[in-house]
């Protein structure tokens, strides 16, 4: 009788233990059910997402086009190709010039028939030592003074009217007075650095059109870029005050800025001459002094 009671008790304990294991197993399954995920529209397995190619990709590698690289800006691309940022944006149908993408292909030469011509204004040349004098104040050897550039172009006799500027027809002047702090170097300095005092006048080194005014090019501070013809650009950097606007025509010797130290370690003018976008030594173009 005692043995029967012991066996019954042991059977009860084993039964309860098995029930506990079954209950635990059931709870574990209920806590982590298998969930069937439904693939959303457009992301089904096996469907490759469509990647939109960069704008202008069909022109990649062609002459007259440039593929945007990391770190590029439209202003720098324009400077290095001797063009206006606005012109490149227009030729390339760029909606927002402040947003260009890596891999995007830009036209950096004008389409046929859209070459930009900068006609110099017929007037006496300005000497390097007359930076503080208005260009119009220089004596005119003959003819009646014109009221402005537009009327001048219409009244100058054909034999005295200047032809479109070419490589050899630009008579440059120094953009400011001051000592040369740093000369041109192919690697370290793309132009010349000229010292001075904050507020000193900065003048156009030749007749031209303003193609850029701003501070969007790193390392140049407040910058002005002039286009003189289809070959030459000049750049005037680190200015304190900018006195011209984009698309404005300027005369040689006209004050366009005041010297400063924006994005520079001291007050100076960094002056560049670019031939077809490539920096060249300004000393080879500026008159001796």
What is the fold's blueprint, element by element?
Layout: H1 2-31, E1 65-67, H2 74-80, H3 85-91, E2 105-107, H4 149-155, E3 180-182, E4 192-195, E5 201-203, E6 208-214, E7 222-227, E8 232-242, E9 249-250, E10 255-259, E11 268-275, E12 278-280
Antiparallel strand pairs: 1-2, 3-4, 4-11, 5-10, 6-7, 6-9, 7-8, 8-10, 8-11, 11-12
Keywords:
Membrane-bound Lytic Murein Transglycosylase D, Chain A, 289 residues, alpha+beta, Glucose Permease (Domain IIA), elongated, 12 strands, ten-stranded antiparallel sheet
CATH second-level architecture of the domain at 117-136 and 167-289: Distorted Sandwich
Q: How much of the residues is beta strand, in percent? A: 15-25%
Give the helices and strands as they follow along the chain: HEHHEHEEEEEEEEEE
Identify the overall geometry: elongated
Question: Which percent range fits the helix content?
Answer: 10-25%
CA gyration radius, whole angstroms = 36 Å
Low-confidence parts lasting 5 or more residues at pLDDT below 50?
Answer: 26-41, 124-130, 132-165
Protein structure class: alpha+beta
User: Looking at this structure, what is the CATH superfamily of the domain at 117-136 and 167-289?
Assistant: Glucose Permease (Domain IIA)
Q: In CATH terms, what is the fold-level topology of the domain at 117-136 and 167-289?
A: Glucose Permease (Domain IIA)
Q: How many DSSP H or I helices?
A: 4
Largest sheet: 10 strands, antiparallel
The total beta strand count reads 12
| Mean of all residue-level pLDDT scores | 76
Distance between the amino and carboxyl termini:
131 Å
> What is the CATH class name of the domain at 117-136 and 167-289?
Mainly Beta
């Amino acid at each position: 009788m005692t043995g029967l009671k012991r066996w019954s008790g042991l059977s009860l304990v084993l039964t309860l233990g098995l029930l506990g294991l079954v209950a635990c197993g059931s709870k574990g399954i209920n806590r982590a059910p298998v969930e069937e995920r439904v693939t959303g529209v457009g992301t089904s397995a096996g469907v490759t997402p469509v990647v939109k190619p960069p704008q202008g990709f069909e022109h990649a590698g062609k002459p007259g086009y440039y593929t945007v690289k990391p770190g590029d800006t439209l202003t720098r691309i324009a400077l290095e190709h001797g063009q206006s940022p606005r012109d490149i944006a227009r030729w390339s149908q760029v909606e927002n010039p402040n947003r260009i993408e890596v891999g995007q292909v830009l036209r950096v030469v004008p389409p046929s028939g859209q070459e930009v011509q900068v006609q110099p204004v017929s007037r006496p040349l300005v000497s390097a030592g007359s930076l503080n004098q208005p260009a119009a104040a220089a004596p005119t050897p003959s003819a009646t003074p014109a009221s402005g550039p537009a009327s001048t172009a219409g009244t100058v006799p054909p034999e005295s009217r200047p032809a479109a500027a070419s490589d050899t027809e630009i008579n440059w002047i120094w953009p400011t007075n001051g000592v040369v702090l740093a000369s041109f170097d192919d690697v370290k300095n793309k132009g010349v650095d000229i010292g001075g005092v904050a507020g000193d006048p900065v003048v156009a080194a030749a007749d031209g059109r303003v193609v850029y005014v701003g501070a969007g090019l790193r390392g140049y501070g407040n910058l002005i870029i002039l286009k003189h013809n289809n070959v030459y650009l000049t750049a005037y950097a680190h200015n304190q005050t900018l006195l011209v606007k984009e698309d404005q025509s300027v005369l040689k010797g006209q004050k366009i800025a005041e010297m400063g130290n924006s994005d520079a370690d001291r007050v100076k003018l960094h002056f560049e001459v670019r031939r077809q976008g490539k920096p060249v030594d300004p000393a080879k173009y500026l008159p001796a002094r």
